[in-house]
Design brief:
Bound molecules: S-adenosyl-L-homocysteine, iron/sulfur cluster, FE3-S4 cluster
Structural class: alpha/beta
Helix content: 25-40%
Distance between the termini: 56 Å
Mean pLDDT: 96
Number of helices: 14
Number of strands: 19
Strand order of the largest sheet: 2-1-3-4-5-6
CATH topology of one domain: Rossmann fold
C-alpha cells in the first residue's frame, strides 16, 4: 500500500504542459492521493517545467529555490520536477538543485505515482527521463483525463519532427507520434459525459496528424469524427504549421459548424530570408495565400500568431518586413518573444546575435502595433450578437460571467451561475485589447 499524499502541482509553459499536469493530477487522485491548492499544505510538490526560452529555465529554478525552504521545514516533503526543462537537463537538475527528490521527463509522466511510492519507501532520489516514444504508455496516461468544467484539452499527438532551427521542443518532446483517432474519439466521448462542451485538440503541428502513428485518419477526418459527437458544441485545435495547412482543412471551416472560426497560425517572421534560416519551409507569400484562402471561406475568422523578434542577423529590413506582414494580415492576437538561443539547436550556432537594447526596442515596437490591431479587431464586434459558451464567473465583478465567442474572444457579461457550460447569445457593447463586454439578449 502506498501512503496517500497531499499533492500540489505547479505548471509552466504551454497548453500541452497544462494538459499533462491536469491528467497527472487525475492519475494521482485515482490512486488515492489528494490535490491541494496551496504548496504549504502539500507533502508532494511537482513542478511541470518549460524550456522554450532561457527565461523559462530561470523561472523553474527560482521556483525550486523557493520550495527548498519548505523542504527544510518539512523533511518528509517530496519535491519532483518534470516536463520540458527537466527532460533537457536530466541529471543536471540534481547538481543544480540537490534538494530535489524526483526528476521526470515529458514521456515518463505516467511513472510519477510509482516513483513517488519508491521514494517514500526508500528515501532515495530518482531520475527517469528516457523517451521511449511508447504509444501504449501514452494511451494509458491519457485514459486518466477527466472533464472538469465545460472546456477540456485533448492531446492528439506528441513530439515534433520539424526542427525549426531556433526550437528546443523536438529535443525535449521527442519525435512526432499520433494517437489513433478511435482512442481520441473515445476520450472526447468520456469528457462529454463528464459535462465538457468544448475540446481543444492539441499537438505541436496538428496538420501533420496521422502521418506517423495513428490509425490512418488525417486531421480532417479526425476533426469530422470528433465534431460528430453529440452534445459536444465546439471543437478547437492548436498549433498549426503553415507548411502543412491543407485546402481540405481550410474548407472544413465552411463544412463543420462545430469547428470554431479561429486559427493560431505562427508566422515567426515576415522576412523570407529569416524564415529560411529558421527552417520554416514557407515564404511570406505562401503565408498570405493561406490567409486569403481562410478569409475567403470565412471573412471573420480570427487569426492569431507567434512571432520571434531578433533572430540572429535580423536586419532593420527584416524587422520592417515583419511589421509589414502584420499590417498585411492584421492579426486578432499575437504572442511575440525575443529570440533566445537554446542549447543543441542549429540557430544557437549562428553569428549575428543582436544587442539586448535593440531586441527590446524592436519587441516593444511590434507589440505596440499589435495592440492597435487587436483593439481594432475586437471593436469590430461591437453591436453584433454572438453565441458565448459560459466558462465561469468573471473577475470583472459580482454577478458577472465570462465566456468566449466562437472567435475565442473573451466576453464579460451579467448572468446567472446556472448558465455555466451552456451557450447564450450576447450582444457585444464594448471592447478592449484583451476582452469584450456584452449583454445577454
Ligand atoms: N509547435 C508550436 C509551438 C512551439 S513553442 C508551433 O510551432 O507553433 C511556441 C512559440 O515559442 C513558437 O511558436 C515560437 O514563436 C516561440 N519560440 C520557440 N523557440 C524560441 C526561441 N528559441 N526563442 C524565442 N521564441 C521561441
Ligand atoms: Fe518548435 Fe517548429 Fe516544432 Fe513548433 S513546429 S515545436 S516551432 S520545431
Ligand atoms: Fe510547451 Fe514549453 Fe515544452 S512551450 S512543449 S512546455 S518547452
Amino acid at each position: 500500500m502506498t501512503t496517500e499524499r497531499r499533492f500540489y502541482i505547479q505548471t509552466f509553459g504551454c497548453q500541452m504542459n497544462d494538459h499533462d499536469s491536469t491528467t497527472l493530477a487525475d492519475l494521482l487522485a485515482a490512486q488515492g492521493h489528494v490535490q491541494v491548492d496551496d504548496a504549504d499544505d502539500a507533502d508532494l510538490i511537482l513542478v511541470n517545467t518549460c524550456t522554450v526560452r532561457d527565461k523559462a529555465d530561470q523561472k523553474a529554478y527560482s521556483q525550486l529555490g523557493r520550495y527548498r525552504f519548505l523542504k527544510e521545514r518539512k523533511p518528509e516533503l517530496i519535491l519532483g520536477v518534470g516536463g520540458c526543462m527537466a527532460q533537457g537537463e536530466g541529471r543536471r537538475v540534481l547538481s543544480r538543485a540537490p534538494f530535489v527528490d524526483l526528476v521526470f521527463g515529458t514521456q515518463t509522466v505516467h511513472k510519477v505515482p510509482d516513483m513517488v511510492r519508491r521514494i517514500s519507501e526508500r528515501r532515495r532520489r530518482m531520475v527517469w527521463v528516457e523517451m521511449p516514444n511508447d504509444s501504449e504508455a501514452m494511451e494509458v496516461f491519457y485514459a486518466h483525463t477527466r472533464g472538469q468544467g465545460p472546456k477540456a484539452f485533448v492531446t492528439v499527438m506528441q513530439g515534433c519532427d520539424n526542427y525549426c532551427s531556433y526550437c528546443i521542443v523536438p529535443y525535449v518532446r521527442g519525435s512526432e507520434l499520433s494517437r489513433p483517432s478511435d482512442d481520441i474519439v473515445k476520450e472526447v466521448e468520456r469528457l462529454v459525459s463528464d459535462g465538457v462542451r468544448e475540446v481543444t485538440l492539441l499537438g505541436q503541428n496538428v496538420n501533420s496528424y496521422g502521418q506517423k502513428g495513428g490509425d490512418g485518419a488525417d486531421f480532417v477526418e479526425l476533426v469530422k469524427k470528433v465534431a460528430g459527437i453529440e452534445k459536444l458544441l465546439r471543437v478547437r485545435f492548436t498549433t498549426n504549421h503553415p507548411k502543412d495547412l491543407s485546402d481540405s482543412f481550410i474548407e472544413l471551416f465552411a463544412q463543420a459548424p462545430k469547428l470554431m472560426p479561429h486559427i493560431h497560425l505562427p508566422l515567426q517572421s515576415g522576412s523570407d530570408r529569416i524564415l529560411n534560416l529558421m527552417n520554416r519551409r514557407y515564404t511570406t507569400g505562401d503565408y498570405f495565400t493561406l490567409i486569403d484562402k481562410l478569409r475567403a471561406v470565412n471573412p471573420d475568422i480570427a487569426i492569431t500568431s507567434d512571432v520571434i523578434v531578433g533572430f540572429p542577423g535580423e536586419s532593420d529590413e527584416d524587422f520592417e518586413a515583419t511589421l509589414a506582414a502584420m499590417k498585411r494580415v492584421v492579426f486578432d492576437g499575437m504572442f511575440s518573444f525575443n529570440y533566445s538561443p537554446r542549447r543543441g539547436t542549429r540557430a544557437a550556432e549562428l553569428e549575428g546575435a543582436l544587442p539586448k537594447e535593440l531586441l527590446k526596442a524592436r519587441l516593444a515596437e511590434l507589440q505596440t502595433l499589435q495592440k492597435e490591431h487587436g483593439l481594432a479587431k475586437n471593436r469590430r464586434w461591437i453591436g453584433e450578437t454572438r453565441p458565448v459558451l459560459v466558462e465561469g464567473r468573471s473577475k470583472a465583478g459580482e454577478g458577472q460571467l465570462m465566456g468566449r465567442t466562437p472567435e475565442n474572444k473573451i466576453v464579460n457579461f451579467a448572468g446567472e451561475a446556472q448558465w455555466l457550460g451552456s451557450e447564450v447569445l450576447v450582444e457585444v457593447t464594448d471592447a478592449g485589447v484583451n476582452s469584450m463586454v456584452g449583454v445577454v439578449v
